[in-house]
Amino acid sequence: MSSRITTASLGFSEPMATRPRFHANDTSRDVLNVIPRAVTIEDARHRAGVPSLDVEGFCLIDHVSAVGNFRDRQEIERVHVEEIRQLLLSASGADQVVVTGSGVLRFGERSRDSGALNNSRPARFVHVDVSDSTAGNFYARSRPDNGRGLRRSAQYNVWRVLTPPPQDVPLAVCDARSLAPADFISADAMFDRDGDIVFSFEAWLLRHNPAQRWAYFSNMRPDEALIFKTHDTDLSVAHCVPHGAFDNPDCPPDVPPRASIEMRGIAYWFS
After folding, report:
1. What single-letter DSSP state applies at residue 49?
2. Distance in angstroms (rounded) separating the CA atoms of residues 145 and 26
3. DSSP readout, 149-171?
4. Is residue 254 exposed (0-12), middle (13-18) or buried (19+ Cβ within 10 Å)?
5. Closest to 109 measured CA to CA, from 201, 207, 27
6. Interatomic CA distance for residues 196 and 201, integer angstroms
């Protein structure tokens, strides 16, 4: 039911006199200069060539989960963490993968859970989860202590819909090859709860550049996983993939609001 190309609005950032910051929950505290812009977004499901993690920086993989209730944190930790670890081992070809956290549930704004749960809104501004500096800190913190030399590390986000197709608020990803260094703006990601900042780190926002190439996968199913790269120490392959939510103009208005879970993992290659 979707076309191969759609035009939709994504939230791009512009430089500010002060350092931008955004909050997981209390968005009234955000300091941002986000400008919505209409861009062309390709339905990558119709591509003749399948996108890959090391070329475009993203891929779609069939992946059936044994999780019965994605709202059950204990079940996620008991079942899904290992599922994601095995998925990323296979998809990346790495020697070892460390899954960080037990996932983030997000809901389209038409859902009563959007904003009612911790960090549960869709990201309406384009961003990269970690800057190079933050990625380096995460590598050091999660690196397995196995006495072996490290030759490469990469970080991934695994995004899965929990509601049937079609999605009213899909996720757009940017082809890593279409990015320029000047596109990125450093910002502070603030993780707040009950008014307090629990932790924070540096992420990247994205300026609009007509050379950027955007894509999404239409009609995603819960037995699929969109994997995209957020950092890589190997400079010869895709480095990172900016991403952001958008309103799908091809979607009927009466579908259930999108629910999704994202899991993050760090891959290591040893010498």
Report:
1. S
2. 37
3. -EEEEEEEEEEEE-SPSSPSS-E
4. exposed
5. 27
6. 15
pLDDT digits (tens, 9 = 90+) for 135-161: 999 999 999 988 899 999 999 999 999
How confident is the model over 85-107, as a mean pLDDT? 97
Q: Is the dihedral of CA 45, 87, 267, 203 positive or negative?
A: positive
Phi first, then psi: give them for residue 34, nearest 5 degrees. Answer: -95, 130
CA distance 233 to 94: 13
Identify the sign of the CA torsion 2, 3, 4, 9: negative
pLDDT tens, 9-26? 999 999 999 999 999 999
Contact 86, 95 (CB under 8 A): no
Nearest CA among 95, 92, 101 for reference residue 237: 92
- The secondary structure of residue 259, as a DSSP letter, is E
Q: Please report, in angstroms and rounded to a whole number, the separation of the first and last CA atoms in the chain.
A: 47
Mean local confidence (pLDDT), 174-203: 97
Domain coordinates of the chain in residue numbers?
A: 5-44+51-270
Q: Which residues contact 66 (CB under 8 A, 6 or more apart)?
A: 79, 83
- Given a cut of 50, whether residue 1 has pLDDT beyond it is no
Residues in the chain: 271
Q: Cβ(20)–Cβ(188) under 8 Å?
A: yes
Q: Is the peptide bond before 166 cis (omega within 30 degrees of 0)?
A: yes
